[in-house]
Amino acid sequence: MSGEIKVRRVSSGKRSRDGQRSHLTPARKRTSGSAQQCPGSTGEIELSRAMMTQSLHGKFNEVGGWLNSRKTNDTEDLFGDYDSILADSSFLAKLDGAEENAKQNDIHSATRTKCPVVQKYDNIDFTSLKSSTDNCPKRSCDDSMTDSILEGLGDDSLIDIPSSQLAFQQDILQTAENNCCTDEDITSTPVRHPEKSFSVENRNESHITHKARKSISDHLKRTMMGNATAPSSVSRTAVQEAAIVTKEINVAMEAMKAVSVETTDLGPFFGLPTKVKELIRNLKGINDLYEWQNTCLNLDSVQQRRNLIYSLPTSGGKTLVAEILILKELLCRNKDALFILPYISLVQEKVRGLASFGVELDFMVEEYAGSKGRFPPVKRRGKRSLYIATIEKAHSLVNSLIEANRLDNVGLVVVDELHMLGDGSRGAIIEMTLAKVIYVSNLTQIIGMSATLGNVQDLQRFLKAENYTNDFRPIELKEYVKLKDSIYEVTPKEEECFRFSRLLNFKYSSAMQNIDQDHIVALVTEVIPRQSCLVFCPTKKNCENVAAMICKYLTKEFLQHKLAEKATLLGELKNSGNGSLCPVLRKTVPYGLAYHHSGLTSEERKLVEEAYSSGVLCLLTCTSTLAAGINLPARRVILRSPYVAADFLKRSQYKQMVGRAGRAGIDTHGESILIIQDKDKELLVSAPMEICKSNLMYDNGKGVLSLILSLIGLNITNSLQQVMDFMRGTLLSVQEKQLCLERSLWEVTQDCVEQLKQKGLVTEAAKPKEGGLQVTNLGRATYKGSVDLTYCEVLYRDLSKGLECLMLGSFLHLVYLVTPYDMVSQFKPDWMVYFRQFTMLSDVEQKMCAAVGVPESLIARKAAGQNMKKNVDLVGVNRLYMALVLLSLLKETDLWSVANKFQLSRGFLQTLLSSSSAFCSCVLHFTEELEEFWPFKALLTELTRRLTYCVQAELIPLMEVAGVMEGRAKHLYNAGYKTLAHLANADPNILVKTVENLFKKQANQIVASAKMLLNEKADALQQEYLCENPFY
């Protein structure tokens, strides 16, 4: 047998790789003509793995030539990056070295009749297979497949190779191990021999023939040939798209498995598990959806996740559609969702309502209202979050997510009352928020719920959205107007808009006629007390007067209707006021009447709303804010006047108010009656459909200034041209021709950037490489603290001055610094009260007042009726008065006594408290960005908490639960539920029996909200720990 080994090169059939072929693609291949035998008679020699590399490189080139000769109609690269192994020069260099060593060993072994007892390999770590017996059966080399040479290179050589090649190599090793262990007579154990010699026993060379090995090359050739012969009628792009869809379906399926062990189906309920439908039935009492809701949820825009605006009348069921879409986002797509609502009360109500869903379906419900909310929110690894936020908090939340590069985690943004885009400064904030979401994330879907608008096309262009409109109402609405003593039905589709219906039939005395000129008593007594009625009044004072006037002419029969329940309500109202009760409510509640406006405390409003919903109260006199807030339907709605304060009623406001008429499941129809005068008739008929306009130019372009500042601060834009590119995506750009009459949008943008530079909020970068525009430290603090640009410089000056002589012996100085600037104009001080309270301050506190520019002498002159000097800062004087009010509230925590002391309404005091806690939170974030204000961080954190609740310290944990007011917190505390954990673990059935005047539904919501809040806090602590200990 010849010992000569012939080596030939085969030209590669692959694409030319000039820079790599010379030393990285050797094409050696053994001659297959010689039938060599495996030497040895008593044991089989395990040949070096390096020998396999010859076959590997040869097969690479042979397969390449074979593939080029094969004809195919597919123009795409069938094998993608199969030859990316060539990119690793270090890896193939080791292969070449191992191959050369193996070649020398193979030459010697082929020319001898017996193998040497010992062969030494100095540099390569091999694995040999030790035989468990001395005499092994004869096996051909085809049947005895050795391990790959890749293992011989050691683990370090595989560190940098592509994952696809690593998986392929591991597959070969597994195959080799299986083949080596197939013979029952041989038990082979892999043993490492680093840098050691090894011995093998001889075997009879006449019984074993050496053939070409089955190895990596064979496996590779079979795999590549299979790929080449597979049909390729579908393009790679289509395959990738199909893979993405499959992946999303798999994600949805896995999410459903996590939701419920018993329910793994996506279900017929709009892709959600059947458990969701059961929860809607049990928690909301809804068995079936309306036809329009089914249609809307099955729209192509919804299914394909395009932006959508849908408009329906009030009480048509818009919110349920939004909630179902939110649940799909959380459960099926495993993404967070943001729900934007206009008022704090609506946020709290929605948090209470959806907390039970969160507990059952395992997602977080987080409240962002007032001073509540984390920025950025906690990054949760195992759960998804639903953020329920007011307009202002939603903007801050989106800013923080953009800064943290996490906005793509929010898959859905839902905006209630989208038509509020046209509502002054709050509308500007909505526009900023949505414009940023559209510009930064193309993965986030936007859903807007809106009243019917005359220019919805503008909103569609702004949001790149489709529109769905329906005039559905669950209960028929009949609209009427009253002119003198005649009732006319509103018929907008007819030529005559008003059609005579009937005359009022109520006997009025002359004295009664003088008091009730609008015949309100006649209108309400047609429905109460057996049915409900809402009377909308133009002012808060008018609400109280109308309620008292109606009671004056009601019969004693009204006093007997639900007598015990009304007595209980009076007791609860008295308890909420720490023994004090509003004299108007004391008179009206026994008749089943009450008033509802912002002059009441939030707890009083809550008690009144619950009593009305349960039928204890049959009539509410209220302002227009009730129509935009909680849903309180009535059989009849009466509009006392077509005016809100001094402004004529907008069509959207009118539709909101009359939309409360008709109670689903109770009434067959609803009625609305608008009381008008002759002069108002033409105004009402000619009132156009309301148009929603951008408010970025509101108050001399303040919205544009704030928007540009945040864009630069968040690194969304860093040049004037980029800022302009963003501005083209706003509603202001859509309406540029109507709103930018004197200057173009480009000129407005340029002017605003210059103003920001002049204010010291924005500057040009020192180096061109750093970008064109940058925010200053003050600019960053301003947008992160959500501070009004009008007050940012004043706030900085006040904080700097306060830091020089900060008085910490009392809360007064800190409270003064966080008293909202924008509330100064809402009231005028009572100077005698001011002077009396000032003289009761300590010497240190009076010294602090003089330091901020309000000495005692100034207050004394005003109390005596004298004029102030012209250079006196009236804003500072009025702020100090409000600070004294807040200080009294922090000391006494009794709203009624403070209201009497300062001659202010308790509702105004609560609004002041809420605004101050929110502004204190803003100032806290403002100071966190300015190193010179570091002492304020700890001080303002505690002050924010105290202003938020303003109750005894032991009640704060209970009042953190959404919907738990001070009175209820006291009841819970006295009943033994003293901590959040106690409340979260409570049994609602026992809670109802233990706590006075607590209904089952309320108990369920309180317990669910407590569980959600407790889970949220625990999860936040866990995530914080994991961030600090990443290797835990």
TrEMBL record:
Belongs to the helicase family. SKI2 subfamily. Its EC number is 5.6.2.4. Residues 1-41, 187-212 are annotated as: Disordered. GO terms for molecular function: 3'-5' DNA helicase activity; ATP binding; DNA binding; hydrolase activity. GO terms for biological process: DNA repair. Residues 192-208 have a biased composition (Basic and acidic residues). It is found in: Chromosome; Nucleus. PROSITE patterns: HELICASE_ATP_BIND_1, HELICASE_CTER. The lineage of its organism: Eukaryota, Metazoa, Chordata, Craniata, Vertebrata. This is Helicase POLQ-like. Pfam families: DEAD, Helicase_C, HTH_61, POLQ_helical. One of its GO terms (cellular component) is chromosome. Residues 519-712 form the Helicase C-terminal domain. It is an enzyme of class 5 (isomerase). It catalyses: Couples ATP hydrolysis with the unwinding of duplex DNA by translocating in the 3'-5' direction; ATP + H2O = ADP + phosphate + H(+). The keyword Hydrolase applies. Its main location: nucleus. Residues 299-471 form the Helicase ATP-binding domain. Single-stranded 3'-5' DNA helicase that plays a key role in homology-driven double-strand break (DSB) repair. Involved in different DSB repair mechanisms that are guided by annealing of extensive stretches of complementary bases at break ends, such as microhomology-mediated end-joining (MMEJ), single-strand annealing (SSA) or synthesis-dependent strand annealing (SDSA). Possesses both DNA unwinding and annealing activities. Forms a complex with RAD51, stimulating HELQ DNA helicase activity and ability to unwing DNA. Efficiently unwinds substrates containing 3' overhangs or a D-loop. Keywords: ATP-binding, Chromosome, DNA damage, DNA repair, DNA-binding, Helicase, Hydrolase, Isomerase, Nucleotide-binding, Nucleus.
